Structure formats: structure tokens, C-alpha cells
What we know:
Blueprint: H1 3-30, H2 34-49, H3 60-82, H4 87-94, H5 97-109, H6 115-132, H7 141-163, H8 169-191, H9 195-201, H10 203-231, H11 234-240, H12 243-256, H13 262-290
Helix pairs in contact: 1-10, 1-12, 2-3, 2-8, 2-10, 3-7, 3-8, 4-7, 5-7, 5-11, 6-13, 8-10, 9-10
Membrane topology: Multi-pass membrane protein
Domain EamA: 7-132, 142-279
Main location: membrane
Amino acid sequence: MRPVDFLLMVGICLIWAVNAVLSRYVIAVDGLPPIFLSASRFLLAAMVLWPFLRPLPRPLLPVVATGLLMGAGHFGLLLSGYGLISAALAAILLQVGIPMTAILSALVLRERIGLRRGIGIAIAFAGTIVVLWRPGEISAGLGAGLVLLAAASLALGSVLLKRLGGMTPLRMQAWTASTSIVPLALVSMLLEHDQVAKASTHGVAFASLLLFSALIVTVISHTAYYRLLRLYDASIVSSLTLMFPLLTVALGIMVLGEKTTSSFWIGTIMAIIGVGVILLREKKTSVVVSS
């Protein structure tokens, strides 16, 4: 991976981490309904990106399926799981999506993981668990299952995205946003209540987070993420998303005043080493190809 693309990936993960911390604060403190917030986010993103919907992609079904998996499927399941288990445990479970993506990439796309990349993934994955693990926490089985399904939905969507030809990142993001509105709105109607009243009560917080999540996160960062998925192996890109939970914890320490632990620093070092191994393997591969 080129250094500029690695820095882009760092920026993407940082944007996601900022969004996670802001969302956690607004939802926990102000009581804004998370699924309604996600549906509103995709609605605004779709309004901004609607010119990219045409012409209709051919075939249409794979594009719709990919958009549903990476949009409504992932976020609907994830946010439903957040209501049943802690965010820290959910972050741990989401990392299962990394080996899921690697396995699916090998099965569907015939990507070679290789011993070195596999070791890098394992080290980075273990480091993330060390950072986020809370030994005293016990989760509800349903909540854990929902988050695992969310990870699987994103992993499968990422792999299917690699198989789509002729879809620019902005166009794919437009379809992801558009296909996610109705499913998330229906889930919100079934599971949440007083959505509009709560959003009106906290108008400034709702509008601020909505604009950030729709424009900065959905339109800019996810579009850039889709671009990287088109350029590099899905297993590499998904592995680098391990920076997201680490940055989320770091921002929680700086912004929310959460205390650091020795496990945080040990896990962070492990994750950095793992990411370095992943990138080293890719760099050596690039040298062989260019020669």
C-alpha cells in the first residue's frame, strides 16, 4: 500500500472514531434514538449523492444487495446490538469481521492471505482485544449475536464490492445510502418511539451530529474507503480498520476523560506491530511485481 493511501486510511479511521465518540455521547446523554439517527443520516447522504444514482447499474441486484449489506444490514444490526451489550464488548465482537473478510476474500475472490499477512492480522487482532477487553463484563447472547451478524454483513458486503465493476466510489455510496433509508426507517418505527420529539428537543445536537455523520462520515470517509477497497485486497483494507477501535479508545481518554490502563498501551503496541507486518508484506509484494 502506498504511504499516501495508508495515511488516507488513518484519516478514515480517525473520522470514524470521532463519529463514534460523538454518537456515544449524544445517544447516551441526550437519549437520541440511534436507528432513527442512522436513517436520517442516510436520507441526507442520499439527497446529496442522488445525481450519482443514474444511470441505473446493470445488473442492479448485486449493487442493491451490496448496499443493503454495508448500509442498513450492518448499521441496523449493530445499533440494535448496542442496546443490549456495552459498546466496548461490541467493538471486540466487530473485530471478528476482519478474519471473516479474509476468509471470504480467499473463498470468493481467490485472494491469497499468506502466512505473513495472517500473522499480522492475528497480532493486530489480539492487540485490539487486549485494549478493549473488560474481564468483568457479561453480555446478553442476543446482543452479541446481533453484533456478530453486523460484522458478517459488513464483511460480506466488502467482498461483494470487490466484484462490482464500473461502480465509482461515490456512485456506490449513493446506492448504499439510498437502499438503507427504508429498512432503517422501518426498524426505527418498530423498535423506537418519540423519535421526532426527541430530535426536536435536542435540535442542535441532532443537527450537528447528523451533518457530520452524513457529509463527513458517509459521503467523504466511506467513499474514500470504497476507493481503497477497489485498489487493494479486501483482507488488507479490513485489517487496517483495526485502527478505528484503537483511535476510539484514545479519543475517549482525551475527550471524555477515560483513564488509561497498562492493557491499553500493551494492546496498542501489539496492534501497531500487526499493522506494520501487514504493510511490510504488501510492500514486498509490490517490489516483486514491479520487477
